[in-house]
Amino acid sequence: MKELLFETKIQVFSVSEAPEIYRELIESAIDATANAYAPYSYLNVGAAVLLTNGKIIEGSNQENAAYPSGLCAERVALFSANTQYPDTKVLAIAVAAVTDGKQTNMITPCGACRQVLLEVEKRYQSPIKILLCGKKEIYMAESAASLLPLSFDGSGML
What we know:
The chain is an alpha+beta fold. The protein contains three helices and seven strands, in the order βαββαββαββ. It is 25% helix and 25% strand.
């Protein structure tokens, strides 16, 4: 028997310490929460994707009574970015949430969103910085791969 150990490096900084390149992205994710449709969970999630061309594409969660027909903010933003700019790499994604009119502490992407993030990294052969935006702190992971060890990568389908 052997044992595997997986480690993930996450940088944590205050909102005021956010790197300049990501400040507009973080604000866009927070702003995107206002466009969420969340009549069941009451958790408005916003995501913003920063592309290599400097464009920021927003997305918000869209719930549906016929669960799981809705879609998470991260996938809305990523799919929209891939549709509008199919040949442009994704540099980073920021995710924020609001409930009862107040921003929550850090929120993380669900497993399905992590898998989509991994596919986008594979598509563009480039890591995506993941910024998880809380009221006071931002958590930043170097890539989606760091959030999902032993992920499904499609290699078993060949």
